[in-house]
Design brief:
Layout: E1 2-7, H1 10-17, H2 23-30, E2 36-41, H3 48-61, E3 68-73, H4 82-98, E4 102-106, H5 112-122, E5 128-133, E6 139-142, H6 148-166, H7 170-173, H8 182-195, E7 201-204, H9 211-220, E8 229-233, H10 242-247, H11 264-267, E9 272-276, H12 283-295, E10 297-299, E11 306-308, E12 312-317, H13 321-326, H14 332-338, E13 341-344, H15 355-369, E14 380-381, H16 383-391, H17 397-411, E15 416-417, H18 419-425, H19 429-436, H20 445-463, H21 468-474, H22 480-489
Helix pairs in contact: 4-5, 8-9, 15-17, 16-18, 16-20, 17-18, 20-21, 21-22
Keywords: ATP-binding, DNA-binding, Nucleotide-binding, Transcription, Transcription regulation
GO molecular function, one term: DNA binding
InterPro entries: AAA+_ATPase (IPR003593), AAA_lid_NorR (IPR058031), Homeodomain-like_sf (IPR009057), P-loop_NTPase (IPR027417), Sigma_54_int (IPR002078), Sigma_54_int_dom_ATP-bd_2 (IPR025943), Sigma_54_int_dom_CS (IPR025944)
């Protein structure tokens, strides 16, 4: 059995009144013989019966009186509502397909939305064939040379691939950070969770702990990683140029403003702006920064045009912002606007387990950078020197460790950097800091005690030239067996 399935169009009814054939009439009178014609209609019901009678008379005159015509009432939210059209078409197509060998779907009558749904559903039914008519009354079979299932699979795969490629590589973004210590591993976990959000971030910690490095990693692991990362040290900004550097300026806004200038907010649009040492910003600039964060708008110096920006702020400071808020040297509203995702970076002395790995990485970098120096030869660091770095206080944190290794590598004439080389290269700020502090516990107390013991063991073994009995005596131990146990405990190889 062959069935024609069609929506009822306004043109079909209007042409009927002129006793002329529109799409449906043309198909059933001049097209292939149909056993049944099913017409779906949701409006103009006062004209249906006249239209049906007119079709039957025309079919009788054409010798096709055996063709059954049925107009079915369907309910649509509107003639362009895809959801309701789809539900109706799914139900009707399933019904006619179950009893028919071939189903022809008319694509001419009805709204464009009805045609689209008919094509999409019909392509998934092996019994369906599409037909349409031209304004001149010509009948055309329609071949749509697209396998929607295959194309959808391809486009889905492509979309997923593109999405995956755009997604930040969270683990990879933080791979440059050495995190063997438990405290640093916990810091990285927090940073990874913060990265996928778009919240403002505030990084706290002593100078030299790597706040800018962590900020860059958060950006690279975020959904903004393909957009710019801009960084500025707020403490280094000239007070008279702060506004211009951050928010930009208009040509002629002040002496020397020879052209329009995009500030850092505009340069970082879509990406991340890292404001290091934010506690150094003047109060007047803090007000403008707060407005930029709240309104996502900035105004260049000397301009009246407000510009919309989309920037994630990561701020950092080594200063006590809580005290500054209390002293009214830092705006409370700005503080709470920034202090959403707060991460406190541990000092280097709190992450002593990371130091040996950091030293090895730094020495590799130093050798690479110094290879063009005519008086420099590649150097490596002794175990005793590494033990010294682990036990040292490092008030300047990672930055001080890096500088100390650089100085030692530059001044030493030996291929192996010894403990003495590092002691000479270490500045005396550590001693000054310890003298100023009335009470000081560097991170984990037990770890600090262990570091002192390790340092003492190494010194004793150096003093005794490897003689364990002499070294044990110098440490006040009753026998060298205790010293052997200590060497095993601290994994010292002598």
């Amino acid at each position: 059995m062959k069935v024609l399935l069609s929506w009822l169009g306004r043109t079909d009814l209007d042409q009927m009144k002129l006793d002329k054939s529109a799409s449906i009439a043309t198909l059933i009178l001049r097209g292939p013989f149909f056993d049944e014609v099913v017409i779906l209609a949701s409006a103009w019901d006062d004209e249906w019966y006249d239209y049906k009678d007119w079709l039957k008379r025309k079919l009788a005159c054409a010798g096709r009186s055996k063709t059954s015509v049925e107009i079915k009432r369907v309910r649509l939210t509107s003639p362009i509502d895809y959801l309701s059209i789809t539900k109706v078409m799914q139900k009707q197509l399933s019904a006619v397909s179950s009893d028919s060998a071939q189903v022809y779907i008319n694509l001419t009558s009805g709204t464009p939305a009805m045609t689209v749904v008919s094509v999409l559903l019909g392509k998934g039914n092996a019994k369906c064939q599409f037909v349409q008519t031209s304004p001149k009354g010509e009948i055309n079979d329609v071949d749509i040379p697209v396998d929607f299932a295959i194309e959808y699979s391809k486009s889905s795969s492509t979309a997923i691939s593109q999405l995956v490629s755009k997604q930040p590589k969270n683990d990879g973004a933080f791979s440059s950070i050495t995190a063997n210590s438990a405290v640093m591993q916990e810091t990285i976990k927090k940073a990874q969770r913060l990265a996928y959000s778009d919240l403002p971030a505030l990084l706290l910690g002593e100078s030299g702990t790597g706040k800018e490095v962590l900020a860059n990693c958060i950006h690279q692991a975020s959904l903004r990683h393909q957009k710019p990362f801009k960084a500025v040290n707020c403490g280094a900004l000239p007070e008279n140029l702060v506004d211009s550097i951050l928010f930009g300026h208009k040509k002629g806004a002040f002496t020397g403003a020879e052209r329009d200038h995009e500030g850092l907010f505009e340069q970082a649009d879509g990406g991340t702006l890292f404001l290091d040492e934010i506690g150094e910003l003047p109060l007047v600039v803090q007000v403008k920064l707060l407005r930029a964060l709240q309104q996502q708008e900035i105004t260049r110096v000397g301009d009246t045009v407000t510009r919309t920006i989309d920037v994630r702020i990561i701020a950092a400071t080594h200063r006590d912002l809580f005290r500054m808020v209390s002293d009214e040297t830092f705006r409370e509203d700005l503080f709470y606007r920034l202090a959403v995702g707060v991460i406190e970076l541990p000092s280097l002395r709190q992450r002593a387990d990371d130091i040996p790995e950091l030293v090895k990485e730094f020495m590799t970098d130093i050798n690479e950078q110094m290879k063009t120096h005519p008086l420099f030869e590649s150097k490596y660091i002794s175990k005793a020197a590494i033990y010294f770095t682990v036990s040292h206080h490092w008030p300047g944190n990672i930055r001080e460790l890096w500088n100390t290794l650089n100085r030692a590598a530059l001044w030493s004439e030996n291929k192996e950097l010894s403990r003495a080389d590092l002691e000479v290269a270490t500045l005396s700020l550590d001693n000054i800091q310890l003298a100023e502090d009335k009470f000081f516990i560097p991170g984990d107390l037990q770890q600090y005690i262990d570091n002192i013991k390790k340092d003492a063991i190494i010194s004793a073994m150096d003093f005794a030239n490897g003689n364990k009995s002499k070294a044990a005596k110098s440490l006040g131990l009753k026998n060298h067996q205790t010293l052997n146990n200590w060497l095993k405990t601290y994994d010292l190889d002598f």
